[in-house]
Amino acid sequence: MTECQVSIVVPCFNEDEVIERFHQTLVVVLETTRRSFEVCYVDDGSRDATREQLRALAAADPRVRYTSFSRNFGKEAAMLAGLRMSRGDAVILMDADLQHPPSLVPRILELRQHGYDQVVARRDRSGDGVLRSVVSTAYYRVMGRCMDIDITDGEGDFRLLSRPAVEAVLALPEANRFSKGIFSWIGFDTVSFTYHNVSRAAGTSKWGGRRLLNYGIDGLISFNSRPLRLAVYTGLTLFSAALAYALWIVIGVALHGVRVPGFATLLTAVVALGGVQLATLGIIGEYVGRIYFETKHRPLYVVRETDVSVRQERQNIA
Length: 318
Ligand code: UDP
Ligand code: MG
Fold this sequence. Notes:
- By secondary structure, the protein is of the alpha/beta class.
- It has eleven helices and eight strands.
- It has helices at 19-32, 50-60, 75-85, 105-113, 130-146, 163-171, 179-186, 209-222, 226-256, 263-295, 310-317; strands at 6-12, 37-43, 64-69, 90-93, 118-123, 155-162, 190-195, 303-306.
- Strands 7-5-6-4-1-2-3-8 form an eight-stranded mixed sheet, sandwiched between helices.
- Helix 9 runs antiparallel to helix 10 (263-295).
- The longest helix is centred in the last third of the chain and has 33 residues, at 263-295.
- Magnesium ion binds next to loops.
């Protein structure tokens, strides 16, 4: 096996408008770094010409390898497949839409030279919609409070992982993969720098509001059990409030005798309690659902075609 210093892992979903341009830019930059490299593309079940383009790129250049999924399995699955494919001493994860500028790669590699196992390029929020940046900022603040691991705003998947860090990521068996959390969880010496946000070169973002919301909930649930504790606390608080109110009524009856009204209070209590119970059940359900999913032990993606030798894939999976 030829030695390879750097693997670039690129998940692609319907990126036929930019993939050529991305590839040309990337290769030019990589060649200036004078390191041996490979580029691992993962086509996440694109419905456009992405797969054909990747096939052509791989045929034209032995440093290019690709894997194509049988359908869209999501970016997390695509990144995982890419990491499994990679053979380099260091792996850089990048988006195909040029939002992760290839021009930053030399800087990332230089930081790796200083001994860091994870080098994170975090973007500032310039150019983001107002609503999106407000919501994200708030979300990361809540996450910061709730989670036992650190997740920083703007830190995406644009990062370098050393081989030991990659192996650590691959050693995590969970099916519900929340990469931001995983990267933080594995630890290692990490350094980050900020770059100016760029917008997508072409095509459209695959992250609508709904997808982002689901992703947000995944993040909260995957890495801690605090929502469950929150449910317990809410229950206890309500119970104490009910006890206090009962006491209040008892004293009232002792002092003034029985008075009948109280219909509104009763209704409010019933409705409020019902709401809390449903919410709590929902939280429990989120966890149970995940347990169910994990116990199925399904593979996280199905490969339709690849130029990677089956033997290597097996080794990596084993
Ligand atoms: N992507 C993917 N599978 C998906 C959605 C996205 O592999 O289901 C890839 C996409 O091709 C791109 C990267 O993940 O290379 C980031 O996606 P996008 O640019 O849509 O996200 P955003 O930059 O808006 O967060
Ligand atoms: Mg993008």
